Amino acid sequence: MSQKMKDRVAIITGGCGGVGIEVSRTFIKEGASIVIADMNDEVGNALADEMKAAGGNAIFCHVDVTKEEDIKGCVEKCVETYGKLDTLINIACVMGIETGYIHEVTSEMFDKDISINLKGSFLFTKYALPEMMKNEKGSIVNFSAVSAIRGMIGHSVYASAKYGMECLTRMIATQYGKNGIRANCIRPGVMTNPNWEDTDFGKEYSAFMLSHMPATRIGRAADAAPVVLFFACDDSCYVNGQTLTMDGGLTCHEPQWKEDLAEFEKGLR
What we know:
Blueprint: E1 9-13, H1 18-29, E2 33-38, H2 41-53, E3 57-62, H3 68-82, E4 87-90, H4 107-135, E5 138-143, H5 156-176, E6 181-188, H6 200-210, H7 221-232, E7 243-246, H8 258-268
């Protein structure tokens, strides 16, 4: 069986989250050597041990994406361990720092949200690019969100940061395409979260969102892994600077907000 990531070295940020774990396992299966970058030492070390026990090359690197020295150190550790870096997957993000209206967002909330959801990926990219330029080859995969292209009640800074990820993707593609470096972006929609998917809230939220989607189920972390693999490997060698929406059709139509519309119509009578 051909391995699409054979001899590739990848850093996966947010590697201990649902999507990060699935991407890490997929990359190992496809022959890559990986660095799992995250703040969760327990999960990260266990994941690296699991992959090494199965014959893969994996190390864990503790990284707080709000700290530039952690990011720089992670890239240095990757090159020191594997001799190069040619793939960067920027998944690390946090939603829920600010959930109210714009006028309710404090400067502290804004700075924290941007630092985690945009600046961290920018800095990882900044330090990864010189290593990729040495080999004149590289692939960077960023993560946006459908909130970047839709108005929402709350999450204003998060959505702004995610749109920034799409812009960053185009900038990388434009500035470094001649160096053999590609950048593409994934814009996921509603996905299950292992922290709450089995709770009453999780079940109610999933059911509500699914009722407004042309899909048979909510997205899963495993759905993202093959898309990341496509952008990271040579299957997409002529794809650069693009954002792919992966949302089960959520943004392809005008949703029928049944319950809300019914309440609105009652008010008109």
